[in-house]
Predict the structure.
Amino acid sequence: MLGVASLFTIAITAQVVIGSPIRSRTPYSVKETHFVPRGWRQSADKPHGLINLNIGLKQGNFEELDRHLYEVSDPNHERYGQHLSMEHVHELIKPSTEALDMVHEWLNDNGIEGFSYSAAKDWIAVSVPVETAERLLNTKYHVYEHEDGSRLMRTPEWSLPLHLHEHIDAIQPTTSFMRLSKDKTEFLHLQPWTPPGYTAPLNETISKVCNIKSVTPECFMTLYSTKGYVPKALKDNKVGFCNYLGEIPIRPDTAQFLKKYRPEAAEAAYKFPQFSIDGGPVQDGPLNSTQASDGISQEANLDVEAIIGISYPTDVYSYSTGGSPPFNPDINTPTNTNEPYLVWQNYVLSQSIIPQVISTSYGDDEQTVPQSYAERVCKQFAQLGARGVSVLFASGDRGVGLNRTCISNDGKNTSMFIPEFPTGCPYVTSVGATHQFEPEVVAFRPGSVRADGSFREIYNSGGGFSNYFPTPKYQQEVVSKYVAGLGGLYDGLYNKKGRAYPDIAAQGQDFAYVWNGTEGTISGTSASTPLMAGILSLVNDALLDCGKPPLGFLNPWLYSRGYKGFTDITIGSAVGCQVDGFPAKAGWDPVTGFGTPIFPKLVELSKGE
């Protein structure tokens, strides 16, 4: 188990001179404002206790890192596959001495005499009373309550001395209302759904092992042609997944799943390492009664069962990060540790050995996150890519946006599709979901009325266009072609010049899985993403076994060559916002990307054959 202290080169509890006046060499000016998202209201409760401020300093030479990243990720470049070391990445992004000195001076002048750093010193963390943070940022924190009952301590605006504006990119938690919701559907406990008119596959090999009501590892291995492949680069190859919100992969459940669906892999349920970051929970035994009643670990079980089920015996790393975003301030929980994403990023970037593929199934509406913070989080993923890591994110489960929520958060209440984050970051690979087998179609399940009369929303593979990030060069050609083919459909509802997602897709509906000793099914892009991670780890295994580097940042290769190793999906659309949404079409589309994997072809293409 590794604690959060290993994230930092220095770890000192901040000492604050309470009541000291704010001192600054220049006047304060507003650095950032962000509208409070719909669904949140300011509570009458007063914020109190400690708050862990993460100060993002301007990175010294990110443009150079970006250049390196694209050169080592472009299969047409002579440096392809020559990934950077941890030390090289840190050297490129470390802030200038001037930036560090000025921020140190600002903190010291205001009574903050101890702080901690990320490995590259581009983030400084301080733990201070809320009142001190308010004075330091010339702001006022409030407790905000969401309509679902969860709470956050945030502020809609904060300021900095003028001379620090150019040296500090972001400070959180301040204006970000992002909550790491699990990208899985609400259909966990419903009977599997068979679409009207569904036709079983004519291919006997597939029809024997693929049941639309409960899709198993044997089906995935057959459908995507990994069956019979035996991983060989076991010493070097690894695949990882991230847990938040108290999620823990439960070993006895995983063993039960593997004994039924991948018997030779059953022992792996007790062997994969669990890394605890910032107090993230880990355990070896079954769920206790409280955990079971809370529904904990459905997502984590899905992740580990999907990955081991397809990639055994490849090593699997499980990262569990504490600091669940919803924060209920009370006398028993005085410290606000509400940025687990950043904590995980800084931790893994400080490690010399990390998995070559990492899957994450958590995200939120892009507009809940201030753009400055979204950009900094995205740049963290670029660092992983430069080191040879393929970072995968689920594309979301609500098509182009959850019905009746498709309104801008800028005070104008403009009708718009709702992109997700971080899946819209150009440095990650976004994964959509499919259903059925011959052919595969866009994953979809209609809404339904619950027993209490409330409506259960539809499930649909997510897709869209970022409002924060422009279309990256690697996908400009296919995106512009797709947009032109729409003929003006949905004009004004999305950003035609934004980073478009997803990039690829895999099965994501009615997965067989085990939770709390009980067999069931589960759906979502949070199912397709770990499945895809497992398949890509097998591609890496084939590369490493013949002395080649791993895939690394996938997208430049994917859009120039790798797309030929995917089966195109042309049926379905990204239903949401009370419309059919973006349709799946021949070629790339913003609902299943280039489609689903053909493993032998991907191995061939990745080797340059």
Remarks:
- Residues 269 and 288 are 18 Å apart (CA to CA).
- The radius of gyration is 23 Å.
- Confidence is low (pLDDT under 50) at residues 1-21, 183-188, 325-338.
